[in-house]
């Protein structure tokens, strides 16, 4: 075995090249114990030996690291075993391609999924520490904007917990989602330097790096047999280095992988530049390469047409597909069988260049025929649409994409040429439809429609809630649905009940353990057994004790971050999500102002605390103005002694996953008030429901299914339906609605009087004027009277505490269909068709 060490370069040497023949290490593997004493020793050893610190003289960060390393040690063997199973034994696997993963913190999740909670808690107690305090020291991994990125994170948890061989592929942004602070009511953005202290949960795998090409040109070469091959030459290459993050399943011995690519310069410097004396130019190319994975674009549900964003997308797609092909070729000679062994799920159109890139790799690099390559591609790609908003539908200018990615662009053009030919056969003489469906638009300045590329290249196309999928099929993708109805399906989103109930709400979780047994954590249907207890006095009283403590914890967070003191006896009315006009945070503030004016007029309302939080895209002027408006209104209300103890309004800065873990167990009322037809699904709505909040909402996204699950009597419905929204446009007159409703007249008069201007009238008047405009796409004023009515019903029920508690319990009881365990089973049954892995626990 050692004979070939001399002939190999050191970086190609395998461990077994060095170990003498017959010497096996397998039976010497250390099996780490997970009792209290071993865990305690681990923490001490990591602090002193791995990190080189002593307790007397080190920052708290090191305590966190020592604990995290001790936990990480205990998932390493399972992780290795799972990777081997996925790469070698699994007959079929899925690669989930996503530009975003909003993971949040990892420690608590790992501790509980590995069932280390009790022992580790006891070990830390012996060291004078509490696990909870240690957990708070971890920085969120915020590699996503909002719902789409968090969904990817919940999917990974459920796949691992179901034992599905699914690998997440994404980008390791140096700077994740910006941190938000509020200065004089305005949003201020700060870079999220999340890797500053190092990241315990990633393992760099430089040996699996690959090269991604940009720029250059395409050369045509005629071969001896007359066929023509395409060579992509003179490219600027960027090295993609993978960092693996473990994804532990719940108590099942499975640890899946999230593989995040980081960009660095290639070692192959451009030699001609070198020789021409361009040494510094060649070396400084390193900077532009490292730029690719530098920063997450902070736009949620809206396109950012920057070239760097396109480079990021191609970088993710090319590196991930090369990795999948590499793994396949470890155990196979050619590509026969590949289409039966792989599925690539595209999280929105962001990774839809995968269609062109897989074609390029198969045709150019692996010399398959076009037809064979296309047959494989269209059997492995599956596309999830996340939005109907026109501003979110990605279109890249053909000129831009052609300059940056000449060869993939040629391939897109060829795919489109063949697709249009197919259309002439399938839908003859429907030229209008052909133009609408074409991947490349027929304009003077053509664009590549990424959704069309994804649809033409995929065998499955899904929306993310029943209503959304129907609207896709009847509206945006109508023509495609006529052509290929079998490709379209719905997969209603979910959230993982581990992070979003069991771990973020330990008090409720304990109660559930006691009354249901512990199986509910992996079989959420068991929650249905709560329904018969909804009216029991003793169960209600346990329920309310817990909810009160959760509200106290949120009140404390609010006090720390905003200085405002609220009582847990108030109705906690919560809207937290990205700031967007379609989500209508404005409705929520306008209601708060309505209650305020009522109180000043001497009318009674039950004490209410309105909490709003969310980040605005830095370039989204209107969303930022809404933040300012909320803060102005809050300033007036919170400082008015006349409403002391009756009404508080807070805009909580820096909404993220960890904040939501405190917020959702403490909400009484969940605000899900988007304009019907605009919110594809929503997942915040599901987290709240699971934790016992009652929803006030429109018939939009997954609200429809939430209301169906919990029963209409236990949901506060208001607002126009999708059809009514469509009808409303064209003859919409907010001025008449305002004039016809005294509540609205009083409300808008207060803004006109400058009650909330805080010396800076322009900004917030813009927001109010937009809502009053006949062209307001979000129809805020149209829904406002019904919203105020629904809020009155909320108050009426709230004043009957037993009735409210019953509703709260029923919301949790009927929330099981919004588990991502159910969502992943649906994807697996209809799209992925994977066999669950079984590994020793
Ligand atoms: C769940 C979640 C979201 C999505 O919220 P929606 O209300 O569905 O828009 C966004 N951000 C964070 C941090 C979340 O946890």
UniProtKB/TrEMBL annotation:
It catalyses: [(1->4)-alpha-D-glucosyl](n) + phosphate = [(1->4)-alpha-D-glucosyl](n-1) + alpha-D-glucose 1-phosphate. Its EC number is 2.4.1.1. The modification N6-(pyridoxal phosphate)lysine is found at residue 687. One of its GO terms (cellular component) is cytoplasm. One of its GO terms (biological process) is glycogen catabolic process. The keyword Chloroplast does not apply. Pfam families: Phosphorylase (PF00343). Keywords: Carbohydrate metabolism, Glycosyltransferase, Pyridoxal phosphate, Transferase. It is an enzyme of class 2 (transferase). GO terms for molecular function: glycogen phosphorylase activity; pyridoxal phosphate binding. Allosteric enzyme that catalyzes the rate-limiting step in glycogen catabolism, the phosphorolytic cleavage of glycogen to produce glucose-1-phosphate, and plays a central role in maintaining cellular and organismal glucose homeostasis. Phosphorylase is an important allosteric enzyme in carbohydrate metabolism. Enzymes from different sources differ in their regulatory mechanisms and in their natural substrates. However, all known phosphorylases share catalytic and structural properties. Belongs to the glycogen phosphorylase family. This is Alpha-1,4 glucan phosphorylase. It comes from Granulosicoccus antarcticus IMCC3135. The gene is malP.
């Amino acid at each position: 075995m050692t004979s070939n060490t001399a002939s190999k370069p050191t970086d190609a040497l395998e461990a077994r090249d060095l170990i003498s023949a017959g010497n096996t290490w397998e039976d010497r593997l250390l099996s780490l114990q997970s009792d209290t004493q071993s865990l305690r020793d681990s923490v001490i050893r990591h602090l002193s030996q791995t990190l080189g610190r002593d307790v007397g003289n080190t920052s708290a960060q090191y305590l966190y690291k020592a604990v995290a390393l001790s936990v990480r040690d205990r998932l390493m063997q399972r992780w290795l075993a799972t990777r081997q199973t996925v790469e070698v034994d699994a007959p079929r696997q899925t690669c989930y391609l996503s530009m975003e993963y909003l993971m949040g913190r990892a420690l608590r999740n790992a501790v509980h999924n590995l069932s280390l909670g009790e022992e580790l808690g006891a070990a830390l107690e012996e060291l004078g520490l509490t696990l909870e305090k240690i957990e708070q020291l971890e920085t969120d991994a915020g590699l996503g904007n909002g719902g789409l990125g968090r969904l990817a994170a919940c999917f990974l948890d459920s796949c691992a917990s179901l034992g599905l061989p699914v690998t997440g592929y994404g980008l390791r942004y140096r700077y994740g989602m910006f941190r938000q602070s509020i200065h004089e009511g305005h949003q201020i953005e700060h870079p999220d330097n999340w890797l500053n202290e190092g990241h315990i949960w990633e393992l760099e795998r430089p040996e699996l790096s690959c090269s991604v090409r940009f720029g250059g040109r395409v050369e045509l070469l005629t071969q001896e047999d007359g066929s023509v091959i395409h060579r992509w030459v003179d490219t600027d290459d960027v090295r993609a280095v993978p960092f693996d993050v473990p994804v532990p399943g719940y108590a099942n011995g499975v640890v899946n992988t999230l593989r995040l690519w980081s960009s660095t310069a290639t070692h192959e410097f451009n030699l001609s530049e070198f020789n021409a004396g361009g040494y510094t130019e060649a070396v400084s190319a390193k900077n532009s390469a490292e730029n690719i994975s530098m920063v997450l674009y902070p736009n949620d549900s809206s396109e950012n047409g920057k070239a760097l964003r396109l480079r990021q997308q191609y970088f993710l797609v090319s590196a991930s597909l090369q990795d999948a092909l590499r793994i396949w070729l470890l155990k196979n000679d050619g590509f026969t069988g590949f289409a039966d062994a792989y599925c690539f799920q595209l999280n929105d159109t962001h990774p839809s260049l995968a269609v062109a890139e897989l074609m390029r790799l198969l045709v150019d690099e692996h010399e398959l025929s076009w037809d064979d390559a296309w047959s494989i591609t269209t059997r492995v790609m599956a596309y999830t649409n996340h939005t109907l908003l026109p501003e979110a539908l990605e279109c890249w200018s053909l000129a831009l994409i052609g300059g940056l990615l000449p060869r993939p662009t040629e391939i897109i053009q060829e795919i489109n040429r063949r697709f249009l030919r197919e259309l002439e056969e399938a839908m003859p003489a429907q030229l209008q439809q052909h133009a609408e469906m074409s991947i490349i638009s027929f304009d003077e300045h053509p664009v590549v429609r990424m959704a069309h590329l994804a649809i033409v290249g995929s065998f499955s196309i899904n929306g993310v809630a029943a209503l959304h999928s129907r609207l896709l099929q009847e509206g945006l993708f109508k023509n495609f649905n006529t052509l290929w109805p079998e490709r379209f399906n719905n997969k209603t989103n979910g959230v993982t009940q581990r992070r979003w109930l069991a771990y973020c709400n330990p008090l409720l979780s304990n109660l559930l353990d006691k009354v249901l047994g512990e199986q509910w954590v992996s079989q959420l249907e068991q929650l249905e057994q709560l329904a018969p207890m909804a009216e029991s006095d003793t169960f209600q009283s346990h329920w309310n004790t817990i909810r009160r403590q959760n509200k106290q914890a949120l009140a404390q967070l609010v006090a720390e971050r905003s200085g405002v003191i609220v009582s847990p006896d108030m109705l906690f009315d919560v809207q937290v999500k990205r700031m967007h006009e379609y989500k209508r945070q404005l409705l929520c503030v306008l209601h708060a102002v309505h209650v305020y004016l009522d109180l000043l007029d001497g009318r009674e309302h039950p004490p209410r605390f309105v909490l709003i939080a969310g980040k605005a895209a830095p370039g989204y002027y209107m969303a930022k103005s809404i933040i300012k408006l909320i803060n102005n209104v809050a300033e007036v209300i919170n400082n008015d002694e006349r409403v002391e103890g009756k009404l508080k309004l807070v805009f909580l800065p820096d909404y993220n996953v960890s904040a939501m873990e405190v917020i959702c167990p403490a909400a009484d009322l969940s605000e899900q008030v988007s304009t019907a037809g605009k919110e594809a699904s929503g997942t915040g709505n599901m987290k709240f429901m699971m934790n016992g909040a009652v929803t006030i909402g429109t018939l939009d996204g997954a609200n429809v299914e939430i209301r169906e699950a919990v029963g209409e009597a236990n949901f506060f419905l208001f607002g126009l339906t999708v059809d009514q929204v469509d009808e409303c446009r064209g003859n919409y007159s907010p001025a008449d609605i305002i004039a016809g409703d005294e509540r609205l007249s009083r409300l808008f008069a207060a803004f006109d009087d400058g009650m909330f201007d805080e010396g800076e009238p322009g900004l917030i008047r813009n927001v109010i004027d937009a809502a009053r405009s006949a062209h307001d796409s979000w129809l805020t004023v149209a829904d406002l009277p019904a919203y105020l009515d629904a809020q009155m019903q909320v108050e009426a029920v709230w004043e009957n505490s037993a009735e409210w508690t019953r509703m709260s319990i029923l919301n949790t009881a009927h929330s099981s269909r919004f588990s991502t365990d159910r969502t992943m089973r649906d994807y697996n049954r209809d799209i992925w068709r994977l066999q669950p892995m079984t590994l020793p626990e």
